[in-house]
Amino acid sequence: MAITADTLRHAATRARDAAALAQDDLNAADGRLGDGDTGVMLRRLFEAVATAIPAHENDLGIVFQACARACASGTGSSLGTLVTVAMMTLAKATRGRSEIGWDELGGLLASIRDQMMARGGAKLGDKTVVDMIDAVASALAHCATRDEATVAAQKAAQDALDAFRARPNKLGRARMFGERTIGLDDPGMLAFSRLLAAVAA
Ligand SMILES: [Mg+2]
Q: How far is the CA of 30 from the centre of ligand 1 (A)?
């Protein structure tokens, strides 16, 4: 079974519900090293995505384009910009296609990682969502089925959270907290892992 527009519609609903459930945890994580708005931003973003996703459209590129538009108009936050970049990257890569294979996910995520680095200025090792996406992209590189991808992606996300918790944040407002960020999860990485867990379930 490949990934189709129906897969995306289900995923969008799950992501919306997961973002609502994770809102308080993510606000709290962001509040320890930023302005405490990651949870509310993520909830608004994925509410907008779930609402904007077309009900009767098979072209994955058009579906992702609608998601990108919803993200771009839904928030002016840096998180919103990154999710918009991700959706635009996917729209461009899947235009004219009604399905993609699970074995293509790793390459698509790697493209998203590269576009985010180009747009947001994050480098690998800065302890941002880019590090999380890099880890999951690598883990997905050898997956051919939904079951393989589900297990590998969730393990990679947990391993990345655990590995980076012991390191300091090196970008954005969190960077000002320096060594005090050691022992804390980056809110963007945490947000990605929560969405992934919901979508993969
Ligand atoms: Mg914030």
A: 6
Tell how far the Cα of 135 is from the centroid of ligand 1, in angstroms.
23
Homologous superfamily of 5-200: DhaL domain (1.25.40.340)
Q: What's the gap in Å between 174 CA and the centre of ligand 1?
A: 9
User: Residue 48 has what pLDDT?
Assistant: 95
What residue segments make up the domains of the chain, in order of their start? Answer: 5-200
User: Running along the chain, 201 residues long, what does each successive block of 10 average in pLDDT?
Assistant: 95 97 96 91 95 95 97 80 95 98 97 94 94 98 95 98 95 82 94 95 82
**Cβ atoms of 152 and 139 closer than 8 Å:** yes
**Phi then psi dihedrals of residue 177, to 5 deg:** -85, -10
**H/E element, 197:** helix 187-200
**What is the Å distance from ligand 1's center to 89 Cα?**
23
Q: How far is the CA of 79 from the centre of ligand 1 (A)?
A: 8
Ligand 1 centroid–CA 98 distance in Å is 36
pLDDT value at position 174? 79
pTM above threshold 0.90: yes
- Phi/psi at 171 (5° precision): -140, 150
